[in-house]
Fold this sequence. Notes:
PPM-type_phosphatase-like_dom; PPM-type-like_dom_sf; PPM-type phosphatase domain-containing protein; seven-stranded antiparallel beta sheet; PP2C; Phosphatase 2c, domain 1; alpha+beta; protein serine/threonine phosphatase activity
Amino acid sequence: MLYAALSETGKVREHNEDSCYADGRIFIVADGMGGHRAGEVASALAIEEFLDFERENRTVETLNRIRDAMLSANEHLYEMALKHPDMEGMGTTFTVALYERELYLGHVGDSRAYLFRDGGLTMLTRDHSLVEQMVSEGYISRREARVHPQRNVILRALGVAEDLEIDRDSMVILPRDKILLCSDGLSGALEDEEIASFLSRVDDPEHGCRDMIQAAKDKGATDDITVVLVELDSETPEGGLDSDKGKKAWWKSLFSKPGPISMSRHNPIRRECL
């Protein structure tokens, strides 16, 4: 496995409220919201709280562990906002991919997870946004949604409400698959076809992240841009993935890149949440 995580401010932004994390097993993108630097606090603390909870509850079934860790982060942020008036309205999107033989996903907000397999790009998450709801109900087209004046209004996020529904899913990952997590700074600037084109040419995740971020900037991205890219090994271990030998070799390969990547850029971005 190879992976990279990069985060940069958009073309007209001075600050960045995105945070991200990658360690070979857990991959996260969080896009903060709220004034007075509350957004940068929300995205960074959400990741910290998630990782602490997950680390202490490894015996819990994976999808339930993801849900409970996200709910713990939600409670932490919500209570902090109640205690600190200057952080009222803070929150963050949160998209996590956790690899334990299969890929497990947890998601709220409008950051995204994609799978690139055999030349095709599939979105693994659903945007919790006003425009996505309008598209699903037939009020606007998907193309209209990309330029709609309320495209930044999101309907679910960590920290903005005491109760929260979390999307969860799991799937089998194959050799040569690529997993992309990104904030809407990337997906709002680049069409899915453009993202697929970049992923089809990627031979190094770090270069791929940099190229996609630069392309988003070149198209005038106004939002912070965060990208986490994971590339699975190109060969199946001897004996196949389902054999004991294959599972051990495959699991070992996940940790071929030492050390976690964690980014928390302290910058404000205006986001809205209903």
